[in-house]
Each structure stands twice: as structure tokens, then as C-alpha cells.
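LAB NOTEBOOK - FOLDING QUEUE
OPERATOR: T.R.
BATCH SIZE: 2
PURPOSE: Compare the predicted C-alpha cell outputs for two unrelated chains run back to back under identical settings.
PRIORITY: normal
REVIEWER: second-year student, initials M.K.

ITEM 1
FIELD SEQUENCE / FIELD STRUCTURE:
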Amino acid sequence: MLLDITSIAAGGDGVARHDGLVVFVPRTAPGDRVRARVQAKGRFGRGTLLRVEQAGPGRVAPVCPHYLRDRCGGCQLQHLTLEAQRAAKAQVVRDALGRIGHRDVPLPPVHRAGEPWRYRRKLTLAARRTADGWRAGLHRAGAPDEIFALDDCLIAETGVVAGLQRVLAQAASLLPHVSSLRLAMRREGDDLLLVIEGGAHWPEAKAFAAAATEVAATWWVNDEGRRRLILDRRAHRDAGASFVQVNAEVAAALASHVERVVRRHAPRTVVDGYAGTGDVAASLAAQGVVVTAIELDADASAVCAARLATPSAAVHARVEDVLPTLLPADVVLLNPPRTGVHERVTAALAESDPTPRAVVYVSCDPATLARDVARLRGWRVESLECFDMFPQTAHVETVCELVPEGL
């Protein structure tokens, strides 16, 4: 089928329309005319790119050999210029807010910051045990059960990639005796930190950590989700296994913007939901704002608590469990995971008396952001700005400032 690609959908697929059929074709660009094999189901179709008959203005040759040769699923937009990537992300955010969130918003700016390559300080590999030993790599696009051996990842720091490869060379035989694992390596300062996920028992854990000499600290997350610190060689210990943004430079720019948006409302009290280790909470508290920082991860919450002086405080809990007891507040800051906030969170905000002056919502998924905004009836989008935290991929970070209607 001959298709004209008009836009990029959430997730990075190109979109074409043909005789009433909406077709999603991976690795295509707006303005492309492509030949594709299409499987249709109802009004929608999934296309497999056969060849590009005419390239759109934003198409470029992908730099990473894994992108085309191995159909790597880690990146979705390497075939677009950075300008075209950011234009696509802005449109995805706007479309989601309109279609799901029922808010008519202008195209948001997408701030560029940092480097488009080698920006990730964390890399996660899928590992499969084979007859010849462990095979570790990344998933193929559209085939989550398939992995390919990784030579390099051009969006990850070279030290992180090399660190993972050396660990596998040093100590792969000491990994848990299971068929599959996840290995996540992250740089924190000068240290490499490793989290291994999978397995019910790991009697060789300490021997593995001792053999992996490049790693400063090793954690194991078993099949029940329980995390255990195996070995820590660091001089300074923190919440190293907790979530952090993988792009440190853009994360700093985003945090500064979030703080400016919060400060615009001159708050005396702020509730910081999903606070992590408390970077924004600590900065606001240092300026005289009374901050209550909610975080479920125990290690991160402990670090946050140590950074806050009374009357500010950290609360180790789920946001939906404690937010109703912590309102009212002048401003509520939300920075949830990709799944968005629980419906009890938006219900608590709607029922708060008095109503917060603003909700500042930091999102890594436009669809769940839009869903949660739709739940906040009576609130309008005051500002919407995006940050290109993950160049070459379809992911985008969005800061949505919401204020009550009538203000």
C-alpha cells in the first residue's frame, strides 16, 4: 500500500490515512511517501515499512547501526532531525490534552537542553540464559520477547555501557540461576551502581558483587519485588537504587522551571507528591516555604527527610493514602510515574477546601497527564511547557500548571 505520512503518534509511529483507514507505520517521518504492508483491524491498521518512495523534509539517516539492523526498540525517532522530533512531541502533547483531557491548548514549547547523544547515565539490559551463557541486550521494536546483543548504545554514556559489559565478562557465571534477568547500571558521580532484578534465591550474591570490581554498589530485587543491598563500596551512601532522571542536565533545567512555576503563586505551604530525594522540596524549604514531601520509596524518603528542617517534613507513604490529610495547601506539586496519579489524588484536590492556588503536574506520559487533567473539572491549564529529556526517543517531559477556573 502506498501511504503519505502526515504526523507522528504517541509512541513514535508515523500516521497515514487511506480510504478511511488510520495506519500506524514505525520508522516513518511526516512528509514521507512510503510503501508499506498493512494489517487492518476495524478502522485502524498497522504498517510494516517496505521502502521510502519519497522522503519527508525531516528525515535523516539514523546514526546507530542497531536502529535499522537490529530494529532496536530503545529509540523510536532517530530517523528524524532534532527539530522534527521536538515538533512531533509538541503535537503529541497538544493532541492528548485535547482528545483525552478536553482542554484546548496551543502547541507547547519543547525546550532543548543538553546533548542529543550520550546523555543517559542509566542503561537497562534484558538478559537471557542460553546454552552458551548469558545473552544481554535490548529488545527489538515490536517484539518484546526478542533481544539482540548490544555492541553500544549511542544515547547512553560510554562508561555505563562499558561498565555493564565488563561486569558480564567478570561475573556472569555468578548471576542468579534463572532464565531471564534485568540489569540496570547507573552512574552517580564517579560511581557505577548496579541493580539486578529477577530470581527467588541468589546464594552467589556476595561473590558476584565482590567479583564485579567496577561496581561501587550492587542491589538485588527478587521476584517478589523486595530490594536488598548486596555490597556497597561507596564512601558516601545515599538512595542509589531509587529512581532518578537519567538525563542529569535536562533534569536540572526542568527542576528549575518547576520551582519558578511554584514560586509564581507565592506559596507559604506546598505538598510535593512523589518527591524522590527532595531536590525541589529542599530548595523551596530553604526559601522559607513549608513543604510536606511525600515519597513511597523508603531510601529516597529518608534522604529527603535529612534535607528538610522543621516545620517542613518528609512522609513515607503513597500519595493517594495521605494527600487528603495534608490538604489544604497553597500549591500541590505532582511528579508521578508513567502511570499517572491515582484517582483518589485528583478527588482529594477537587474536594480540598480551600482549593489550592495551583497544581503543578510534571508528566513523562502525555496520555496519563491528559487523563488526570480531565478528572480535574473546574481547573484550567495556565501554562504548558515540555522538555526534551530523551532525544532520539518518543518520550517527552511536560510541566502542566493548573489553576482553578475563575482565578
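ITEM 2
FIELD SEQUENCE / FIELD STRUCTURE:
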Amino acid sequence: MSGSERTFVGFGFGPIQSGLFLYEAYRSGNFDRYVIAEVDAPLVDAVQATGGRYQINIAHPDHIEQVAVEGVRLYHPARPEDRRKLVRAIAEADELATALPSVQFYDSGDSSSVVSLLADGLGQRDPDRPAIIYAAENHNHAAEILGDALRDRVPDRSRAKIQTLNTVVGKMSGVVTDGDTIARLELAPLTPETPRAVLVERFNHILISRVTLDGFQRGIQVFVEKDDLLPFEEAKLYGHNAIHALIGFLAERRGLTTMAQAAEHDDILITARAAFLDESGAALIEKYGHLNEPLFTRDGYQASAEDLLQRMFNPHLNDLVARVTRDARRKLAYDDRLFGTMRLALNHGIRPRHMARGAAAALCSPEIPSIGSQAELRSALCDIWGPQDDAWAESLIDLTWQAMREAGSMKGAHGARML
């Protein structure tokens, strides 16, 4: 392989990899080789059968665009020959990206894990050749977790010019498996033999950690570097994720099936906008307004919120309420999007009554036992949260119970209409 050639290596072939990192690497025109590790054997075989060609669907505000990516080499890390090729590609890679369900998938303890592959590949590298690894798992410290795992397996000399980067991926995406929906939206399947379609929004304003490797030039140039990602990670979790969940749970209580349908309900819109601007936004601006960042100004945050609301309601994205509301217990965790945002607001003297409606709606999820009293609410939340030692637990319970009682006043003879 020529020293002037550039290689991109990815781990996982879900919508964030196929529709963001790999797609943007391909679109940049700055890479000569694209190699992906994927554990779904039929999917690997299907992409190999096409000669490395797959398709994605990009949701614009007014239409869906079908795009093809070509020249991709998909390998299964449990197959010995495929693993050898993956390790060699890692040894020659310039940019790599992990896009897995969670950081827990970094190290499964076997030879096909990401950490094992990276350790073997980095061990074969020219130690003077720099590379970056985008960690795209939904965790504020994914890069540090991956870096720590590699530190235990890879000598310092081999890691000296390898930098792991955190990312803020505010891109909505999904996989459509229903044949009728694929036909109705005229979506292109990933491959002719793969009965699923990747559907992602057009958005690609992805924030990443500042690259500190001397002289390194990123091939994926569209991403934006920041010296400190934490404020933006919090803005995503307590802004984008929080309001997305709030809308989803309110929509679920009303029996809606897509997020776009929620835009037709003025009361949901009013609640979402108030939670976004007056609770999440006001708290984040209070916390980070000293930074020289447009997002953390009133005008900047409002512009971002209005843009996000439009994107959340894009009918061409086919964003299902069931997808947004799944795993309700995780989303009700003390530090997660609903109660985490409420705690942030309370810390800055803001009463988050609109966010409390979202939390109350989430507690009506089938995953949560029925709640009929404040004592039962406290028991349910203590079970979800575990022990907490800050001052806000009781305030959160009171706010949520008040929201549930207010929703109860809307109940008719046949039960709850919505929260």
C-alpha cells in the first residue's frame, strides 16, 4: 500500500456508521480505502456480494434522497481471514470510528472485540504514523473509556500518536425493517438482499474533541473541533435528547405513532418549546453563558431549539414514537435526559414543571408498574434511581407527582387521555 493512500476503518455498521462516519468519509473524497468490522454475518455477506456497495436514505425537509456508497470492505471479526484483514487495515488506518450500541461493547473479552482488534492492529503500526479514533457511543467519556482500555493492552510507544476523540452526534437516524413502510416511503434497502433500509436526517454538524496531534489533517473535514466538549454534550443530553423524549412520551400517551404527528397537537408543542427554552435552555445558559459560544446565549439557544424542533417533526424521517420511548427506565435514570434536565434546572433556580410532564408521561410506560399514589411514585423512582445523596430527589418526586395529578384532572370516565 502506498504511503500516500488514506484508510478509514469503522467498527459497527449501524445507521450512525453507514449514514454518518463512513458516508462522510466517502463523500469527502479524501480516502482510498474503507474497511468496516461488523458482527452481523448475513449483512457482511450481503455487502460483500455487492462488491462493497450499499445505499442509505437521507431525509431532507421536503424529500428523501437515495445515496450509494461504493468500495466498502465489510469483514466479520470472528472469521480468521477477515480478522487478519481488519488488523492489517487498522495498522494502516488514518481515521477510525467506533459506532456501537454502547461503550460496554468495546471489550467483550474475546479476540473479535474492538479493543482486541485495535490492540493487535496498533501493535503492527509504524509508531510514528498518527491516527485518530472517533468514539461515537452515546457517552460523555467514551474516548477516555476506550483510551483506558487500550492503555492496558498497547505499549506506550504504539499509542504515542493515536488520539481518541469524543463526539457529539446530534444526528437522528434509524433502520426501517417494515416492508410496507419501505415501499410507502420508496426507500432503498441497504443491499438488494438486505430487507432493511437506513434512514438518516441530512444534518452533519458533528462536534468532536480538538485534535492535538502535530500536523494531523483530518480527512473528514466537515466535523467541528471544540476544546471542551462537555458543555455541548450536556446541551445534547439536556436539550435535544430531553425534549425529544418529552415529546415522544407525551405523544405515546395520546396514541400517536410518529413524531411528525405530534406537531399537529398545539399543547404538545407549547409544552416542548417551554421546556426547551425556559427550563433546559435557561439552565444551560446560566451554567455556560460565560463561554464565548453562540449556543449558550439566549438568541443562539432559541435558534438551535427551533431548528431542532423542525428536525424532530420532519415527516420524511419517519421517526417512530415507539423508538423514541423504548427503554423508559434508562431514560428515567437520575442523571439521564428527563430527571437530569430537571436537576440541572433546579440547580439554577428554575422550576421545571414542563419537563415534569414529560417525566410523568414516561412513568406511564408499560415498563413501569402502575402508580396510584405519591408513595408508589417514590417507591418506583427509588427503584429506578438507586440511592441518591443530593438535595433534589424529593423535589423531583413532588414535581412529578404534581404533574401526574394535573394530568389526572384531565381524565374522563374511561381513563387517561394524555399527560
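REVIEWER COMMENT (ITEM 2): The chain has two domains: 7-226, 230-408.
FOLLOW-UP: none requested
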